[in-house]
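Record pair follows.
FIRST:
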Amino acid sequence: MNRHYGIWLTLLVILMTSAMLIACAQPTPASKPTTPAPSPSPPTMPVPAPSPKPTPTPTPAPAWKPPEFIRLGVPSTAGAGYAAAVAMYSAIEKATGVKFPATAGALPASRFQLLNNGTVDFSWMTAGELFFLLKGAEDFAQVGPQSVRTMWDGGGLDQGLATRNDTGIKTVPDLKGKKVASYDTYPAAQVIMEGALAWGNLTWNDVNRVPVAGYAQGQDALLKGQVDAAIVSSTAAQAQEMAASTRGIYWIPYPNVTSGDKAAWARFQKIMPVYYPNRTTNAAGVSKDKPVDIWAYNYQVVCWDTTSNDMVYWIVKQMAENYNAYKSASPFVAKWTLDHALQPSIWFSPRHTGAIKYYKDAGRWTAEMERVQQQLLTMYPQTKTQKKGS
């Protein structure tokens, strides 16, 4: 037993020694080079975004610069309209430096031709002239409806049917059988006279017609006793001369008080709708405490529908903002206020687009004005009818 134990112990020692020798004979593996830990990268600074290019400030459109001259068409030099226009635009010229050379036309047709052929840039017309021009009637029957536009409604100009104190005429019906001025070659005035007669239920068949060429000639004929009644501007020189004479002046009344008066005015306005009743003391021979009932109409400042909006805007602006500089020129000119111009109840012609822009910028354009404007454009749809050179 002991012998076997010794043998196994000897074999175990030999095996262990062999194993140790083999292990010592293995080459020592080369140590792997140590890779140094990477150094931390320095913090990356953010690259600033490129600054946006500044948005260019829009260059404002240059304000419209008026020309050195703006040409004006005016009524006959003998009328109140001529004096008023000269006073008004002289004041505007002084304020702005722009000159307004005026060309007068004695009759509606000649004033229209000045506008039509481009001799003038804008013009003054009576309400009656403009009414017929829009319709292409009476003086303008040959040219047809025209596309003129109103820039400004002027103040009312007083006018009436006058006689002398010695004729015995006191009312319109008293004209029956009397000598009455007949404006055979001046259709606009002739229609007014027809309306004036209709007020008293009269026609040309009821009176003795005496042909005259125009207002001035009719007033002269009345002053000389050649007619018993004529259309007279309330402050015309002939009216003042008549009032100062021994025969005096009498304004035949056209009241608008009773139902009968209103029916009479309905007859008048059926023939000439742009004239309206007017009680005034602004008439030759009339005292401040005794006004007379005559009629009135408005002058219209007009141009073509194609006239530059900038020009119209500028002119309207000057008329509105220089009122204090010209209002004292005459009682008639004093009526040319912006408030008077902006009464849609008296409009009968469309406004120009440039004028509307000014009224809007001034904060004065209303929904009612727009309604009337659209109504008038429907009534007078014609556009671009100007025929330069004709």
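SECOND:
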Amino acid sequence: MSSGDAVGGRNRLSRRGGRGCCFRGHGPIASLCSRLEAAVSLVGAPLPPGGVSRTPPRVSAAVQPAYNGRLPTEDATQVDDRTKRRLGITAVVVGSAIFMAGVFVAHFTGLGETDDLGREIYPAIPRGWQWVLLGQLTALAGSQIVLAGIVVGWLWERPMTWARATIGAIVFTTEMIVLFGIVPNEWLGLTQGTFEWTSQRVALTIPPWLVLNNEVEISYGAIKDAVSGGYSATMLGAVIVGMYKYQEWQKKGGAAARPQPVSTYGRPIVKGGQ
């Protein structure tokens, strides 16, 4: 047998168990055949008895990701933000209506019963400091609902930006003005004007045997100032403790960033415009 016949014999096509074909020996054809068998083994589809199949392997329908035009994780995030915004808008509208109603009640019930010419005005509207106080408390409640609606609708659990930081600063400043400015001022106006709690009016006298037989009197003016000062000190302490607790809550992960939603393909979902 010549060397040519030996080489030809080594390159003769042989079949191995019906699973593929290759050329024994060396050369470009044998290399191509071995690469083809390796690719088929990676896909997992066996070769037909006739050799290499031209039909592409099928992918099971169970592993194909379902897509119906929108991703479920994205819907959940959008509904959550949309619900907060609706709650915020509702609170702002309702709080504004309550605030305006309280302002009207406090204004018209605080008017005199007659004008400068002695004519009776608004006879159907009741008068008295009780109605004025009721209107003021109603307006206070409405203002708190408005501020809470702004926080829930546009600030709570949202990424901080310059715009949201500005809104938060305005809300906090407004709340501090209400707590430390308007409320104490209305208290002093009620006690000094309506109740006439002045330093000339004695509220109570301490028994002499408690103060070494001295005469000690406490005026209504002192009680008025004590209540005002105690309220301001208490609210200041509450604000300091509340801010400290809020920061500690953030450090413990209470206000951690919301996990970014991931699509079915394992990639993060990015909203339009980002």
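COMMENT: The radius of gyration is 42 Å.
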